[in-house]
Specification:
By secondary structure, the chain is an alpha+beta fold. The chain has one domain: tt1808, chain A. A 6-stranded mixed β-sheet has the order 3-4-5-6-7-8. It is globular, with a radius of gyration of 18 Å. The relative contact order is 0.14.
Length: about 190
Protein backbone atom coordinates (compact mmCIF):
# COMPACT_ATOMS: atom_id res chain seq x y z
CA UNK A 1 0.00 0.00 0.00
CA UNK A 2 1.50 3.34 -1.09
CA UNK A 3 1.49 6.25 1.30
CA UNK A 4 0.79 9.70 -0.13
CA UNK A 5 3.22 12.33 1.01
CA UNK A 6 2.03 15.91 1.11
CA UNK A 7 4.22 18.38 -0.81
CA UNK A 8 6.24 20.73 1.36
CA UNK A 9 4.44 23.91 2.31
CA UNK A 10 5.55 26.86 0.23
CA UNK A 11 7.24 29.52 2.35
CA UNK A 12 5.97 32.98 1.55
CA UNK A 13 8.34 35.88 2.05
CA UNK A 14 7.68 39.37 3.27
CA UNK A 15 8.50 42.65 1.58
CA UNK A 16 11.18 43.25 4.20
CA UNK A 17 12.79 39.89 3.35
CA UNK A 18 12.64 40.73 -0.36
CA UNK A 19 14.40 44.04 0.33
CA UNK A 20 17.28 42.16 1.96
CA UNK A 21 17.74 39.80 -1.04
CA UNK A 22 20.42 41.40 -3.24
CA UNK A 23 20.93 40.55 -6.87
CA UNK A 24 17.44 39.34 -7.75
CA UNK A 25 17.01 41.69 -10.66
CA UNK A 26 13.70 43.32 -11.52
CA UNK A 27 10.80 41.67 -9.70
CA UNK A 28 7.61 42.26 -7.77
CA UNK A 29 6.32 40.45 -4.71
CA UNK A 30 2.80 39.15 -5.24
CA UNK A 31 1.20 37.67 -2.14
CA UNK A 32 4.56 36.59 -0.73
CA UNK A 33 5.86 35.12 -4.01
CA UNK A 34 8.63 36.65 -6.15
CA UNK A 35 7.53 37.39 -9.71
CA UNK A 36 10.43 38.21 -12.09
CA UNK A 37 10.07 41.14 -14.49
CA UNK A 38 11.85 42.08 -17.68
CA UNK A 39 14.32 44.96 -17.52
CA UNK A 40 13.05 48.31 -18.78
CA UNK A 41 13.55 48.86 -22.51
CA UNK A 42 15.16 52.02 -23.91
CA UNK A 43 11.90 53.70 -25.00
CA UNK A 44 10.30 53.17 -21.59
CA UNK A 45 13.45 54.36 -19.81
CA UNK A 46 13.46 57.63 -21.78
CA UNK A 47 9.77 58.26 -21.06
CA UNK A 48 10.22 57.44 -17.36
CA UNK A 49 13.15 59.86 -17.16
CA UNK A 50 11.25 62.65 -18.92
CA UNK A 51 8.11 62.43 -16.79
CA UNK A 52 10.18 62.07 -13.62
CA UNK A 53 12.33 65.08 -14.54
CA UNK A 54 9.24 67.22 -15.14
CA UNK A 55 7.76 66.09 -11.82
CA UNK A 56 11.05 66.60 -9.96
CA UNK A 57 11.54 70.11 -11.34
CA UNK A 58 8.03 71.07 -10.27
CA UNK A 59 8.22 69.38 -6.86
CA UNK A 60 11.56 71.05 -6.03
CA UNK A 61 10.46 74.49 -7.22
CA UNK A 62 7.33 74.27 -5.06
CA UNK A 63 8.86 72.25 -2.20
CA UNK A 64 5.89 69.94 -2.69
CA UNK A 65 7.38 66.53 -1.95
CA UNK A 66 9.52 63.74 -3.37
CA UNK A 67 9.65 62.08 -6.78
CA UNK A 68 10.85 58.48 -6.85
CA UNK A 69 11.95 56.59 -9.96
CA UNK A 70 14.02 53.56 -10.84
CA UNK A 71 11.34 50.96 -10.32
CA UNK A 72 10.47 52.16 -6.81
CA UNK A 73 9.00 49.47 -4.55
CA UNK A 74 5.59 50.21 -3.01
CA UNK A 75 3.65 48.05 -0.54
CA UNK A 76 0.06 47.63 -1.73
CA UNK A 77 -0.88 44.82 0.65
CA UNK A 78 0.36 43.14 3.82
CA UNK A 79 0.14 39.57 5.07
CA UNK A 80 0.75 38.18 2.56
CA UNK A 81 2.83 41.06 1.29
CA UNK A 82 2.49 42.60 -2.11
CA UNK A 83 5.20 44.98 -3.34
CA UNK A 84 4.60 46.61 -6.70
CA UNK A 85 7.25 48.23 -8.88
CA UNK A 86 6.26 51.77 -9.84
CA UNK A 87 7.98 53.47 -12.78
CA UNK A 88 7.70 56.92 -11.14
CA UNK A 89 5.72 58.42 -8.29
CA UNK A 90 5.11 61.66 -6.44
CA UNK A 91 4.57 61.70 -2.68
CA UNK A 92 3.88 64.88 -0.72
CA UNK A 93 6.10 65.89 2.16
CA UNK A 94 3.20 65.19 4.52
CA UNK A 95 2.69 61.60 3.37
CA UNK A 96 6.43 60.98 3.09
CA UNK A 97 6.77 61.97 6.74
CA UNK A 98 4.25 59.25 7.70
CA UNK A 99 6.56 56.39 6.65
CA UNK A 100 6.93 53.74 9.34
CA UNK A 101 10.36 52.64 8.10
CA UNK A 102 13.13 54.79 6.72
CA UNK A 103 14.71 51.84 4.86
CA UNK A 104 13.04 49.39 2.50
CA UNK A 105 10.05 49.89 0.27
CA UNK A 106 7.58 52.74 0.52
CA UNK A 107 4.89 51.83 3.05
CA UNK A 108 2.73 54.94 2.58
CA UNK A 109 0.61 55.63 -0.49
CA UNK A 110 1.94 58.32 -2.80
CA UNK A 111 -0.54 60.76 -4.28
CA UNK A 112 0.52 60.01 -7.88
CA UNK A 113 1.85 56.89 -9.61
CA UNK A 114 3.13 56.66 -13.17
CA UNK A 115 3.07 53.41 -15.14
CA UNK A 116 4.75 53.25 -18.54
CA UNK A 117 3.28 50.29 -20.40
CA UNK A 118 5.53 47.46 -21.53
CA UNK A 119 4.76 45.59 -24.76
CA UNK A 120 3.75 42.54 -22.71
CA UNK A 121 1.49 44.37 -20.21
CA UNK A 122 -2.13 43.28 -20.36
CA UNK A 123 -5.12 45.43 -19.42
CA UNK A 124 -6.01 42.83 -16.78
CA UNK A 125 -2.61 43.33 -15.12
CA UNK A 126 -2.71 47.12 -15.40
CA UNK A 127 -6.25 47.24 -14.00
CA UNK A 128 -5.22 45.06 -11.05
CA UNK A 129 -2.29 47.37 -10.26
CA UNK A 130 -4.56 50.42 -10.49
CA UNK A 131 -7.11 48.73 -8.22
CA UNK A 132 -4.37 48.17 -5.63
CA UNK A 133 -3.05 51.73 -5.92
CA UNK A 134 -6.46 53.30 -5.39
CA UNK A 135 -7.22 50.91 -2.51
CA UNK A 136 -4.20 52.22 -0.55
CA UNK A 137 -5.02 55.89 -1.18
CA UNK A 138 -3.34 56.91 -4.45
CA UNK A 139 -5.28 59.88 -5.85
CA UNK A 140 -4.07 59.95 -9.46
CA UNK A 141 -2.43 57.43 -11.81
CA UNK A 142 -0.94 58.18 -15.20
CA UNK A 143 -0.68 55.21 -17.54
CA UNK A 144 1.58 56.04 -20.47
CA UNK A 145 1.22 54.12 -23.72
CA UNK A 146 4.38 54.77 -25.76
CA UNK A 147 3.06 53.01 -28.87
CA UNK A 148 -0.10 55.15 -29.04
CA UNK A 149 1.77 58.20 -27.66
CA UNK A 150 -1.06 58.68 -25.21
CA UNK A 151 -1.38 59.25 -21.46
CA UNK A 152 -4.42 58.00 -19.59
CA UNK A 153 -5.11 59.84 -16.33
CA UNK A 154 -7.04 57.74 -13.83
CA UNK A 155 -8.78 59.18 -10.75
CA UNK A 156 -10.44 55.77 -10.27
CA UNK A 157 -11.11 52.76 -12.45
CA UNK A 158 -14.12 54.57 -13.92
CA UNK A 159 -12.85 58.19 -14.02
CA UNK A 160 -10.38 58.20 -16.93
CA UNK A 161 -9.19 60.99 -19.21
CA UNK A 162 -7.09 60.60 -22.35
CA UNK A 163 -4.29 62.99 -23.35
CA UNK A 164 -2.69 62.89 -26.82
CA UNK A 165 0.05 64.68 -28.76
CA UNK A 166 -1.38 68.21 -28.77
CA UNK A 167 -2.59 68.06 -25.16
CA UNK A 168 -1.07 69.23 -21.91
CA UNK A 169 -1.13 66.77 -19.00
CA UNK A 170 -2.20 68.56 -15.79
CA UNK A 171 -1.33 67.70 -12.20
CA UNK A 172 -4.91 68.35 -11.12
CA UNK A 173 -5.39 68.85 -7.38
CA UNK A 174 -2.48 66.47 -6.64
CA UNK A 175 0.06 68.91 -8.12
CA UNK A 176 -1.82 72.18 -8.72
CA UNK A 177 -0.12 74.18 -11.46
CA UNK A 178 1.89 71.26 -12.87
CA UNK A 179 1.65 70.80 -16.62
CA UNK A 180 3.70 68.88 -19.18
CA UNK A 181 3.20 68.72 -22.92
CA UNK A 182 2.33 65.14 -23.87
CA UNK A 183 4.38 65.52 -27.05
CA UNK A 184 7.54 66.17 -25.00
CA UNK A 185 7.34 62.73 -23.41
CA UNK A 186 7.60 60.94 -26.76
CA UNK A 187 10.01 63.11 -28.81
CA UNK A 188 13.01 61.27 -30.22
Amino acid sequence: MAVAIAPPTEKLITGDELYRMPGLGPCELIDGRIVPMSPTNVTRAIIEMRIAAALENFARAHQAGKVLVGEAGLFTRRDPDRVRVVDALFISNERYGQRKKKQGYLDVAPELVVEVLSPDDTMVEVTQKLREYFAIGVKLAWVIDSEAETVFAYRSLTDIREFKEGDVLPGDDVLPGFEVAVRSLFEE
